[in-house]
């Protein structure tokens, strides 16, 4: 079993806040569909934000594709190609004027050729069904459209592990099924998907592994 992302005994306290992660350990393996459950404020997003170095633990370590995270700019560039993180609130993820610019932001930052960037943007936009929105300003989208654009921006980086925070919450049933199919495709290609969610349907019907955040730790659940 190839472990793509490993959280090892993390301790994390937000500046001036309380301890959120306290001995949190979890492994996400290639080919896994994992759901992370837990009450509001239990630390699910905080755990996810450690996987690509957005947060740095005060104790413990994060290992991606066998390498402990390197928090230098170059190191974070490498890890952000491997681990894609979709935020809970798409407004935290969308910055550019247009949808096309937003989806191309990540691939442009990788320094890819323009043709390659265009191909990736077209592919990701088509997968997420936002191809007809490419010229639209991001601020003029509905929440469900924003969520799909944010996902397209992450997919355009072609991550091997995709971590998403409540990404399915605001989607209509049709878009929901479509996004689940995108996750399944990534898993079938040897990647892994971890969804932080309150959606028990996903835990019961979709996940291979269900983890629960409680008291600063992630426990693998039997359900
Ligand atoms: N930027 C921040 N600064 C200080 N405290 C924070 C910050 N972000 C989150 N917290 C606190 O850390 C704790 C864990 O938050 P987190 O967002 O990780 O939980 P969650 O399990 O994802 O919650 P939800 O299900 O509501 O999305 C909460 O008590 C929250 O108030």
The average pLDDT is 93
Summed up, the helix count is 7
Q: Which architecture name does CATH use?
A: 3-Layer(aba) Sandwich
Name the CATH homologous superfamily.
P-loop containing nucleotide triphosphate hydrolases
List segments where confidence is low: pLDDT < 50 over at least 5 consecutive residues: none
Main pleated sheet: 6 strands, mixed
> How many strand units?
10
Protein name: ABC transporter ATP-binding protein
Family: Belongs to the ABC transporter superfamily.
GO molecular function: ATP binding; ATP hydrolysis activity; ATPase-coupled transmembrane transporter activity
Keywords: ATP-binding, Cell membrane, Membrane, Nucleotide-binding, Translocase, Transport
In short:
The protein has helices at 44-51, 73-82, 99-109, 114-127, 143-155, 173-188, 200-205; strands at residues 3-13, 19-29, 33-37, 59-64, 67-68, 83-86, 161-165, 192-196, 209-214, 217-221. With 223 residues, it is an alpha/beta fold. The strands form two sheets. It has a six-stranded mixed beta sheet with strand order 6-7-8-3-9-10, sandwiched between helices. It has a four-stranded antiparallel beta sheet with strand order 2-1-4-5, with helices on one face.
């Amino acid at each position: 079993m190839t472990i793509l992302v490993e959280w090892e005994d993390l301790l994390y306290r937000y500046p001036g806040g309380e301890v959120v992660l306290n001995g949190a350990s979890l492994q996400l393996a290639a080919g896994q569909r994992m759901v992370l459950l837990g009450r509001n404020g239990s630390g699910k997003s905080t755990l996810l934000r450690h996987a690509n170095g957005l947060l740095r633990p005060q104790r413990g370590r994060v290992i991606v594709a066998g390498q402990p995270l390197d928090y230098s700019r170059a190191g974070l560039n490498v890890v952000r190609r491997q681990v894609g993180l979709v935020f809970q609130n798409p407004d935290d993820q969308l910055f550019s004027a247009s949808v096309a610019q937003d989806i191309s932001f990540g691939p442009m930052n990788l320094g890819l050729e323009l043709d390659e960037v265009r191909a990736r943007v077209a592919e990701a936009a088509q997968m997420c069904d936002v191809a007809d929105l490419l010229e639209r300003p991001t601020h003029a989208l509905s929440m469900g459209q924003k969520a799909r654009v944010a996902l397209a921006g992450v997919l355009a980086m072609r991550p091997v592990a995709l971590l998403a925070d409540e990404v399915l919450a605001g989607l209509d049933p049709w878009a929901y099924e479509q996004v689940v199919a995108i996750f399944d495709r990534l898993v079938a290609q040897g990647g892994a998907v971890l969804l932080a969610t309150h959606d028990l349907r996903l835990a019961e019907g979709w996940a291979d592994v269900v983890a629960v955040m409680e008291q600063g730790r992630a426990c693998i659940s039997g359900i």
